[in-house]
Design brief:
By secondary structure, this protein is α/β, with parallel strands linked by helices. It folds into three domains: 145 residues, Beta Barrel (OB fold (Dihydrolipoamide Acetyltransferase, E2P)), CATH 2.40.50; 271 residues, Alpha-Beta Complex (inorganic pyrophosphatase (n-terminal core)), CATH 3.90.1640.30; 100 residues, Diaminopimelate Epimerase, Chain A, domain 1 (Roll), CATH 3.10.310. 43% of the residues lie in helices and 21% in strands. The chain is built from 20 helices and 18 strands. Strands 3-2-4-5-6 form a five-stranded parallel sheet, sandwiched between helices. Strands 7-8-9-11-10 form a five-stranded mixed sheet. Strands 14-15-16-18-17 form a five-stranded mixed beta barrel. It starts with 6 loop residues before the first strand and ends with a strand.
Length: 566
């Protein structure tokens, strides 16, 4: 049994294939054409024509008229990284073209998610003629109908689950997944759809030289939303993120450069998806979670160098992120105690508290799923109603589950593995009982044993710079393009120690017949005694290149370990 209690499943044991061929075959890349398309990414050849998206021509014609007539345009985005970065993309693009543009983001606590009638009323009073939604709007038929009554045209850009009834009075709906849309790639995030609108507008309005410059300048913002919102990293998203990371390394947006500095990222230093996922994304998200999302948006809109206000905002986001981390740690401890007392081993975990801030509910739910592999619903109790956030493992579709209970919910929406809702207190008991029964039924028909999918086993001679060079070609990694995982058996262990501020990471050395390699195991510090007692292990890991102070060496990143069986 492994230290994490997981089943190891090796995907390829075909001795006729080398390691690279096994990794590629595991991803369905078995022909030269497919391999070349995947490895040799080209922005110019790989990006799809934005005008293939349904209603894109309508959106561009309305935008051109708005710019020409000096209509006031309002960009309305979501308060997370995806919505904020997508909003910044459209604000930059429209300002570039001389549009009269404003922006608005909802406050998570004061306004809740998405458009409301109050916002529509406000926009009409302000003389807004065109409203563009970012990362929201597809479920807002009532609000779009009201906008039409008020003389406000609406362009929706969204990627969330298509509801049964869509806003048919919108001037244009840009959503690659909507019925009748022939756009080749359906996995764009909110920032990705906003980016495609910006690309279409810039392509229509700018000369060839400026067009390329402006489209590339917005890629780092598009990559922020794509990575933070867990967009599948294949097809167009893979190109957006690869080139976006290059743009992020030398970003044009100085506010973002200040944030990189506070996150400990040196100017010009190489960045990867972890830079967004664990450094920049949480800092941007912190504003929308526990404060005002405008701080994060304003930071992404700064272009001027040496801007004191941008520095202050970046420092504020850094402070908010530290506060958010403390809030999550405290609430998670309370949550785990409740699970141990009441719900451990349950098919669904559900908990609520008046003191759990609505902005951290999704983080609590995600950590709970990671630990217990069970769908989790966490709610903040506001008295007459509760606002909830849910996360689930792959075997549990949250949108389907919430749709099944829509008669008990005030509002709901989201993705298959991440969704939110509001439930009135009077319906809470029935909702809780019914959801548990629903999850139990799903569980009885599902194999949910925690497993680690391993690409293949590595022999001593496989571990070299050539293999790492190949693995780096496969990046960026993420949902839809998982980093290759390897099994290495019969490794002798020495130099075991815990590292990190909280001593919760594990560092040790392993010996193959010809090599001595460093191993880092993040959040595996509690298993140090296991390595003291077992000096020969089997290791499930990533193979990486570690760069530190100008020096580079091969490194293994431990995912799980077990005692060798000989």
């Amino acid at each position: 049994m492994s230290v994490l209690g997981k089943i190891w499943k090796v995907q390829s044991e075909d001795s006729s294939l080398n390691v690279a061929e096994k990794v590629l075959a595991n991803r369905g890349l078995k022909t030269k054409k497919k391999v070349d398309e995947f490895l040799k990414l080209s922005f110019k050849k790989g990006m799809h024509n934005p005008f293939l998206m349904k209603d894109m021509d309508k959106a561009i014609e309305r935008l051109k008229a708005a710019i020409k007539n000096e209509d006031r345009i309002m960009i309305f985005g979501d308060y997370d990284v995806d919505g904020i970065s997508g909003t910044a993309i459209l604000v930059h693009a429209l300002k570039l073209l001389g549009a009269k543009v404003s922006y608005r983001l909802p406050h998570r606590v004061e306004n809740g998610y998405g458009l409301s009638n109050e916002f529509i009323e406000e926009f009409a009073e302000l003389g807004v003629k065109l409203l563009i939604t970012v990362d929201c709007g597809i479920s807002c038929k009532e609000q779009i109908d009201l906008a039409a009554e008020k003389g406000v045209d609406v362009i929706i850009t969204d990627h969330h689950t298509i509801p049964e009834v869509i806003p048919d009075k919108a001037k244009a709906i840009l959503h690659p997944g909507q019925p009748g849309c022939d756009y080749p790639f359906k996995g764009l995030t909110g920032a990705g759809v906003a980016y495609k609108l910006a690309c279409a507008l810039i392509t229509d309005q700018c000369n060839a030289e400026d067009r390329e410059k402006y489209i590339y300048a917005l890629l780092d913002l598009a990559s922020l939303g794509t990575v933070a919102d867990l967009g599948p990293l294949n097809d167009e998203n893979r190109i957006i993120v690869k080139y976006g990371l290059q743009a992020l390394q030398h970003t044009h947006w100085h506010g973002l450069e200040y944030l990189k500095s506070l996150a400990g990222i040196e100017p010009g230093a190489k960045v990867d998806i972890n830079t967004i996922g664990f450094s920049l994304g949480p800092r941007i998200n912190a504003a929308g979670r526990i404060d005002n999302p405008y701080y994060a948006l304003q930071l992404l809109l700064y272009e001027e160098e040496e801007n004191d206000k941008a520095k202050l905002i970046a420092e504020h986001l850094e402070s908010l992120n530290r506060k958010r981390q403390k809030m999550v740690a405290d609430a998670l401890e309370q949550l785990e105690n409740r699970i141990e007392d009441d719900q451990d081993g349950a098919s669904l975990i559900m908990a609520w508290d008046a003191d759990w801030h609505v902005g951290i509910l999704g983080l609590l739910a995600a950590k709970c799923v990671e630990r217990h592999n069970a769908p989790t619903i966490i709610m903040q109790d506001f008295g007459d109603e509760l606002v909830g956030s849910s996360r689930g493992p792959q075997w549990f579709n949250l949108v389907e589950a919430l749709t099944e209970h829509k008669h008990l919910l005030k509002t709901f929406g989201g993705h298959t593995q991440a969704a939110g809702f509001t439930v009135e207190k009077e319906n809470l008991e029935e909702f809780s009982k019914s959801m548990r029964s629903y999850a139990k039924d799903k569980l009885e028909h599902t194999n949910w044993d925690p497993t680690i999918e391993i690409d293949c086993e590595l022999a001593d001679e496989d571990i070299d710079d050539g293999l790492v060079n190949f693995l780096e070609q496969l990046a960026p990694y993420g949902i839809g393009n998982k980093q290759p995982v390897f099994l290495i058996k019969n490794l002798a262990v020495d130099d075991v120690r815990c590292v990190g501020k909280e001593q919760n990471h594990l560092h040790f050395k392993v010996h193959t017949p010809t090599k001595r390699l460093s191993v880092i195991g993040f959040k595996l510090g509690e298993h140090e005694p296991f390595l003291r007692d077992n000096r020969t292990i089997d290791l499930v890991c990533y193979l990486e290149r570690n760069e530190w102070k100008g020096r580079t060496k091969l490194q293994l990143r431990a995912l799980d370990l077990a005692a060798s069986q000989g």
